[in-house]
Amino acid sequence: MQTTATASRSDQTRALGLSTVAFTACFAVWTIFSIIGVAIKGELGLTEAQFGLLVATPILTGSVTRLFLGVWTEKYGGRLVFSAQMLLTALATLLLTLAHSYVMYLIAALGIGLAGGSFIIGVAYVSRWYDAGHQGTALGIFGAGNVGAAVTKFVAPFVMVAYGWHGVAYTWAAGLALIGVLFFVLAKDDPELVERRTKGIAAPSLAEQFAPLKNLQVWRFSLYYFFVFGGFVALALWMPHYLIDVYGADVKTAGMAAASFSLSASLFRAYGGHLSDRFGARTVMYWTFGFSLIFLFMLSYPPTDYVIQGKEGPIAFSTKLDFWPFVIMLFGLGFFMSLGKAAIFKHIPVYYPGHVGAVGGLVGMIGGLGGFVLPIVFGAALDLTGIYTSCFAILVGLVVIMLTWMHLSIRAMERAALGKELGTLPTLPELQEVHVPGKTDMPRMLEDWQPENAEFWAERGRRIARRNLWISIPALLLAFSVWMVWSMVVARLPAIGFDFSTSQLFWLAALPGLSGATLRIFYSFMVPIFGGRLWTTLSTASLLVPALGIGYAVQNPDTPYLIFLTLALLCGFGGGNFASSMANIAFFFPKAEKGNALALNAGLGNLGVSVMQFLVPIVITAGVFGAMGGAPQTLTTGGELWMQNAGFVWVPFIVISTVAAWLGMNDIADAKASFREQAVIFGRKHNWLMCVLYTGTFGSFIGYSAGFPLLTKLAFPDINALQYVFLGPLVGALSRAGTGWISDRFGGGRVTFWTFAGMIVATFAVIASLGAGSFGGFFAAFMALFFLTGVGNASTFQMIPAIMGREVPRLMPELDGSALRRQSERESAAIIAFTSAIAAYGAFFIPKAYGSSIAMTGSPVGALWAFLIFYVICLAITWVYYTRRGGLLHDLEHGNRPAAILPKAAQ
């Protein structure tokens, strides 16, 4: 019986050497399209999009098959699976030469993609020959087979010049088939497979192999590999095309330069495995992300011309990365990506020694998908922006996300192991004499917070909670103002000389809703991770970016559409703030006052939309900021507007609110939780049901607010409607702030039911008014809609704590007392924040639905009918799950049961 402990050095070397050679050959075939694809493109006359799909197709199959090939390797052994995979890939490569149409080329490319699955076969096979202390080095050496991409780029251009691209395919197919046969003849079965067969032990089932995939950590590793491997493959495929277009290099020079990147991103993988064994894979990952961020930032900076107004006149200079510095930086990027690839696969055998095939297969699949998705994204970004370096800018954003997630996860693990001592620092000597604990310090962190305790609430809790609420409200008001200011700016852009089409204007109006809703998903979990005080400060300060950006962009009619798209997305910072703000306030108040507190925070925060729509038309008519604000824009009708004031007017208030949040708000110790602890809500059915209901209320409010000015202007062009449109968001915000007590008294479920019934009637009235051409009826019906959305916003949020007060004891009966209360409050806050994130997509879909309906039918009525049908669905959900007799909230709201079913100790 052979085991890793008793396997001879010669057997280990044989397994590693044969696997590395086989993987190198497979990788050379996998990236064959990076060279021959150029010839095929010219032969078939392919567009950029068709060429991108052809190049990416092998990457797709190579990625998806990794999951299954890894499992089969665990079951049948690497010797058999590796040999079969190489022979099938060689056959597909040979068939490529018989293709005569684009579709046939795509089918052959799918078969060639099997070559990419070789990686996980080798990982599962090689890791079984080595102990944990040497797996990193062994897998690093094996992974250096990525150099096959460089082999293709070095050799294939010369073969193609001499024999055409068919000659490359014949040569690569023959070589891979030969290696496949030799591998089957010379390789041995791995020690674990031999031992299993000797003892007659059955291979692990699919369920057993896939069990670890439910761990969030596995998916985090997958995202890392999406960059270090997927980004490597994407750049390896993209660089020849990039170098030819940007630097005018010929195909040989471009292939050689791109090969240098593939070389560094492959050969040094072996060194990365050695470093991971010596210093730890975690340390190597920090090096990878840190240095990659530096290189990518320099590569992403486009050639730029600058003009500075100097003392003696304009000083002009430009920045541009020349060909050889570019190649050197690309080489350095490849070096650190190769270290990262080794470090990730050092983690897997250590964390999941019995599931290397399944876990490694998933990680490899996601990484390979990066190689498929990213070239397509690169092409789309180039088409959209016209900036070649946009591909590197995309990778910069990806690295920032991964580095942040990795660091937070590591810190969470350390805190779990070491406790609060990890973040405790000694008092500085110069402060010890003047600092008196309990007197000279301001209690930023509330260690003991008991809002359900009547005595605590009366003596201390109410005062602190209200202070945090009244600091939160103006911060949220400003967030909504900045989020929705774009709707007012967009409506006036044509009048100040910007030549954008109606479709482009609707896109600009819709994008803040899209980005704001997406950011809310992340903001939903930030307060328990960072604390409400810090996150409110940072998120409020972030509003300065779009506010100042708007002020400068609108002053020049030549500002590119891309800049406006970017600013529209940045305005989403304001939309994201709502999720974190509501989650934060939810922790401060007891259940009996939570509905009203959330209604005040959200309702008066929503008032920012109306404040903006009232204030902006006033401030843009005068030079409020004098010379500092810039010159006015001349209207097409001859008048003047200071459109920049639409952004600048918020700057001083944002600064004040940021300072107030930092100095006056508090964090609650019990509210601290990791993402993992909060992620339990994704398994709660009522989380998703409330997402639907809140989309019907808040999604309607914010979507109507974003689309109302432009819709009114288009439907009734003869009426100066912009002076009235602020009334809609005003009514909706005030109704939310003023009706929270109704839900506290009568029950959020009942109020939500009748709200949706009213919204159905009001939407029908809007449709009828548009058909009759009645502005009065249209305006009145919309005011009713805005009022009802405000009532529904308050009632749906009141439902969530009541629902979870019933569901958490049922789902987690092992909890009692304060633990049950904390879990209920934690899940309620997370659901409140997450539902607000999903519902915020209404700010994107409602304006976009108007635009699509107008483009398809010439009228927005089709979109309104779709909204009405959605309200009918929301009404049915509310009745079936919550308000009917036997529904979750029926007895509670009819006074048959206490307001919460928590044990007395927890109430």
UniProtKB/TrEMBL annotation:
Q: Identify its membrane topology class.
A: Multi-pass membrane protein
Report the PROSITE patterns cross-referenced here. Answer: MFS
Q: Which residues cross the membrane?
A: 15-39, 51-69, 76-96, 102-126, 138-163, 169-187, 223-242, 254-272, 284-303, 323-344, 356-381, 387-408, 469-493, 505-523, 535-555, 561-589, 601-627, 647-665, 686-706, 721-739, 751-772, 778-800, 829-850, 862-882
Start and end of every Major facilitator superfamily (MFS) profile domain?
A: 14-414
Alphabetically sorted, this entry's keywords are: Cell inner membrane, Cell membrane, Membrane, Nitrate assimilation, Transmembrane, Transmembrane helix, Transport
Family to which the UniProt record says this protein belongs:
Belongs to the major facilitator superfamily. Nitrate/nitrite porter (TC 2.A.1.8) family.
* Name of the featured protein: MFS transporter
Organism for this UniProt entry: Paenirhodobacter hankyongi
